[in-house]
Amino acid sequence: MADIQGSYDDLFTAVPNALATLLDAGDMGASAAVYVDGELVVDIWGGFADGDRTIPWQRDTIANVWSVTKTMTALCALILADRGELDLSAPVARYWPEFAAAGKEGVLVRHLLSHTAGLPDWDVPLTTEDLYDWPSATARLAAQAPQWEPGTEAGYHSLTQGFLVGELVLRITGRTVGEFLADEVTGPLGADFHMGLSPEHDHRVALSVPPPSHDEDYASTAPGATATPPAGTRVRVRDGNSTAWRRAQIPAAGGFGNARSVALVQSVMACGGTLRGTRLLSQAGCDRAWQEQFSGEDRMLGMPMRWGMGYGLFGNTYGWGGWGGSIVMIEPDARLAVSYVTNQILAPENDTRGLEVVMAAYDGVMGLRA
């Protein structure tokens, strides 16, 4: 069995067992963490940080968590809403006047958070290099027409959501979403999560590894998508592994952290907005994440989805996963946050690893309730 490092409460032995099973099945490297009531009850890691299996995954190894980054961007928006600086039911154009072009004057902030704004991609697909030009990428979104009547349908905004919500953060605060996250969230919490990674952290990054039989030109598809995706802005493994990607702020897919830091940040949502004496938002502010904005077939994912304010809703839990397998799930009733972060990408339609870790964590929760 794979060697698992770290620590865990005896009630949660199913989690290290699950991680070891995944590594034994061929995963390169990963970390898993569980917070209950703000306390770290599982903090484990194993495997390797490189495709050649020469560099062991360490306690401070971090990886690109891809779309799990959306939960961090959503949290920033919810904090601003809780402070009264962002009205989730207001037109986006209140904060971003140029956005009213091409029939978008009725698009509301909550439409951006719930993937119902009708802007799932750019009219002309961007290159990865285009994504590094924030003013240009956001100006293009402001100028284009929605693909459907906003608020009536959902279609996963895999890359655009981060630019749309991030621009609101910038307009309101004068700070990029990565700066706001560092100043207002990860800094106060002491969370090792980064959006716009600085060079001193490069040596800790576990580069993404493409699925077996694929090389670094393997390109992203949306979680849950089983058909060949339509032509659009695509990101390859080699793009995500580049220095330029790490330095850029891609608020829908470019965050770097490990399971401990991801679960720590989102544990704030599980604990009513206050963690270890640090209050980021109120209980009412947290509850906004639960407000269902859409339920039905997602046009881009090709599957039924329930969307809240920036999070996917799944029964009594909410959260989201990323291309490549990383995931975070939150259950406020149990004051639980679970995260799994890996550098081993698998095809989305075959990837249940994160859910296996989440279900293993529930074994421990049941033990706590016994």
Q: Within the CATH hierarchy, at the fold level, what is the topology?
A: Beta-lactamase
Radius of gyration: 19 Å
* Helical run tally: 12
Distance between the termini: 29 Å
Total individual domains: 1
Mean pLDDT: 95
Could you give the order of the helices and strands?
EHEEEHHHHHHEHHEHEEHEEEEEEH
Question: How many β-strand runs?
Answer: 14
CATH homologous superfamily label: DD-peptidase/beta-lactamase superfamily
Note the main sheet: 7 strands, antiparallel
Percent range for β-strand residues:
15-25%
Helix content: 25-40%
The first-level CATH class is given as: Alpha Beta
> Spans with pLDDT under 50 lasting ≥5 residues?
223-230
What is the spatial order of strands in the main beta sheet? Answer: 1-3-2-14-13-12-11
Instruction: Specify the overall morphology.
Output: globular
Structural class category: alpha+beta
CATH architecture annotation name: 3-Layer(aba) Sandwich
Tell me what the structure shows.
The chain has a single domain (about 5-370), classed as DD-peptidase/beta-lactamase superfamily (Beta-lactamase), CATH 3.40.710.10. The protein is built from 12 helices and 14 strands. The longest helix is centred in the C-terminal third of the chain and has 17 residues, at about 355-370. The chain is globular and about 60 Å long. The strands form 4 sheets. Strands 1-3-2-14-13-12-11 form a 7-stranded antiparallel β-sheet. The chain has a 3-stranded antiparallel β-sheet with strand order 4-6-5. It has about 375 residues and is an alpha+beta fold.
